Predict the 3D structure of the following.
Amino acid sequence: MTLTAGSAQSPGTEEEAGENTPPRRAAVAPRGGSPGPGQRGGSRTAGPGPGLRLRRQAEAARAALRRRYWATVPARLRLLRAATVLLAAALAGLLLVVGLALTGTWGAVADRDAPRTTSAADLDLALNDMDAQAANILLSNGDAGQGRLTTPYTKAVGHYADARREIGHDLRTLAVAAQGSRADEKTVESLTDGFAEYQELIGRALENDGHHGGRPAALADHRRATDLLRGQLLPAASALVSSNDTAFEAEYTTARSTLFAQLAAVLALGAALLAVLGVLQWYVARTFRRVLNPGLLAATCCTLLAVILGAHLLSASSSHLRVARHDAFDSVVALSRARALAYDANADESRYLLDPQRRDRYADAFLAKSQQLYGLTGATLPTYDAQLATTWQAYRSDHHDLRFTGEFRRELDNITFPGERAAAERTVETYAVYQRDDRRIRALLAAGEEREAAEFCTGWEPGTSNAHFEAWMVALDKVTGINRAHFDASVDEGRAAVSDLLPWAGGGLSAVLALTVLGLRPRLAEFR
């Protein structure tokens, strides 16, 4: 058989042809440049760059973490359990912080902020009362005891001693409360020194008045004492009232802001914990073909209870704090100032009768204090009673028709509690009676009946000015007592909320931890 050219090839010829023909799939050039001559898809001599190695290491770490914590059913259960435990522990820790903060807040309100403010107000009142009683002693003593008004004198001596003891107590209380505030410390020191000087002047005035012909010297000492009181002691006492009340308000504002922030945090953590428990419940039901896990269901209920109790604790505490500070204590401060002004006005009446040289000054001072209590535009002593009656009748017809200003207006603008309005209205009505007595005193003096004016001013028999003043103070004490009682009740309720609600909330979260672990234990045991 004859072979034709090109009809067949030997294996060697075929291999040679394969070497000379290009490959069927072109080699891909490596990153960073084309292959060098003769490489034609062969192995590279250079390793991967640092960036590529780091990416590969990160991917390997993520893969390892995924395999450990998420890739398997037990890993997912453990991860969700850990999230539940951490959130429950965080919420429990937050509620513990809330409880400690509230305990401190109520302690500060009841044992520091309110007492130091009321002590300053009591000091203001006692200083005015002491000077009023000093004037009454001089006014009722007669001429070195001759013609003495026995009952007014005895009463005045007793009240003078009571006021002096009260001032000493208040100064000690304020000295302790002022520690840490250099301004308040200096004010209390100034008050203490000034009070010692005041007592010396009053003591000298009383001693001079015990001698025949000693009244002019007694009046001179009493004027200096009164000037010291009005120029130094009363402004300092009023400054302490304002300073301590401002500090109380600042503490209140900070505490309320903190409570709102804590409430938001409790709700946020509670919502997150409920969400994780919901996901966990859904995953267990979906994976293990069970409708509900009893342990997780109980943990969810306990979480919901703890969140509700924690939120109620914070909202109730905020409400009790508002009632204590603004609804109750604002009125206590206003009424304490009113009482101090009342005693100062009463002292101005006695000074008016005692010191003829200063009668115009004391009459103006009495009117100024009356305006601070029940302010009437353009009123003078002759027109004050008529304007008071007109504006008060307008208020009684419409409680929104308030045509007056002053401390009584402040109280009537803050009526909150049962019985408070009736007590406040009674206070103004007894005040109006006392004001009419003042006009009678001035009329008796104008008619030359000085002894009768002094007897009516300092006497305690029914129908006298002091008896009506005492009825006014009883009415004022009643409305103050209503507000003090609600202040104390709000403090007690705030403290009770912490002691009653916090243990239940903490117990509920402890149950969440235990129930979550116990509820998942049987499921995890299936994989061992």
Q: What stands out?
A: Residues 205 and 218 are 4 Å apart (CA to CA). The chain has a mean pLDDT of 87.
